Amino acid sequence: DAGVTQSPTHLIKTRGQQVTLRCSPKSGHDTVSWYQQALGQGPQFIFQYYEEEERQRGNFPDRFSGHQFPNYSSELNVNALLLGDSALYLCASSFWWPTGSLYGYTFGSGTRLTVV
Amino acid sequence: AQTVTQSQPEMSVQEAETVTLSCTYDTSESNYYLFWYKQPPSRQMILVIRQEAYKQQNATENRFSVNFQKAAKSFSLKISDSQLGDTAMYFCAFNNNDMRFGAGTRLTVKP
User: Which residues of A touch B88 (CB under 8 A)?
Assistant: First the structure.
């Protein structure tokens, strides 16, 4: 049973460009959350997708957008890249427990984005 | 909004000894989950231990145990018989509708 798969593993982009990162959730999971992790810091919540809609969003500008497909996979798009966007981007998949809480949080290995 | 605070940026421990990592959180929710994750240099976030807020009994997983104090909003991780492979970043996390992380504690286990 494959876990969470993220692609690419590493990426170098130029300031002002746009980037798309991809995430395939663990089998049986229907919710995808994205995080930005700067070097030496904790992951910061970007947004969460469920039923192909953005359900929750952290404190990130509109340059960060996403999408979820019918097969539950997801993309994270970042426009007008800034040097400060350089970070490890983590994807986590999960599912909703009947109690109304997210369960089974599983992380991918991340995409290391470097903006030059 | 929920916040998670880890006040120890770095810690070290001798192999085979015990170490405790601290975490406090702030929330108005009554039903939530707390986690400790380990992130080695490989970048993979690995679940160490999980605690449901409605359970008074502290969770235990082999050498890892927690001290959950709901009223104080405190959730510390104790690692017993530390091993070299425990060297990693450790993150405390709060989960209600989404997962929020602390800034992390870098733990080094010395031989």
Answer: none
